[in-house]
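fyi for ur records
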Amino acid sequence: MSPRSGRALAAMALAALLVACGGPGATTGSATSTPSASAPPPARSAKPVSAVGRSIPVGLRIPAIGVDTPVMKLGLAADGSVQVPPIAAHDRAGWYEHSPTPGQTGPSVILGHVTVGAYGDGVFRRLGELHRGEKIVARLENGTAAVFAVTAVRTVSKAHFPSSEVYGNVNRPELRLITCGGKRTGDGYLDNVIVFAVLSSAAP
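which gave:
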C-alpha cells in the first residue's frame, strides 16, 4: 500500500471507526467514535513473508476460538461511517473494502459482532481470548489461504481508539480483527477488542 493510500485510509478512519457491537436493540448500520493517542504499537515478528496478490476474502478461520465464518464485503454508509455486518441469526464477519485484501502489503481490516441482539453471541464473541502466535486463516477468492500469526491482542476504550496503529501504513502484510468488548451498556459496549496479526505463510 502506498503512503498516500495509507494516509487516506487513516484519515477516513478518524471520521468513521470500525466498532461492530450488535448489542441489545442494535440495528444494521454503522457506528462512529473519536480516536486519540494510545499505548505503543504491538510487537512485530522478525521473519518477513512476501505479500500475495489482491484477492477478496471469502472466509475466515480461527481454530483456537472455534471461528469458521464466511466473510462479506463492507463499504461506507450514507453518512460516511464504516458499515458493519447486519444483525442476523447467521452472523458473519466483514472485510472493509477500502483496506488491503488479506496478504497484500498493509493492514487488512476485518470486523465482526460480539453479540447480535436477540440472536445471541456474535462471530467474534471470543476474539479477546486469542494469544500471541495463534493462527488466523483468511480464505481468498482465488483459492489462496493466507495464514497469519497473532502478534498482539488489545482491549481499548472507544474514546481512545488507536487509529494510526490500526489503519496506518505498514511495510508488510498484516491483519486487524475488530469487535466490541469491555463493559456492556444499554446500547452497546464501551471498548473495542483489536487483534493484530502478521502474514506467516500463503498457499493455494
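The first helix runs from residue 3 to 15. thats all i got for now
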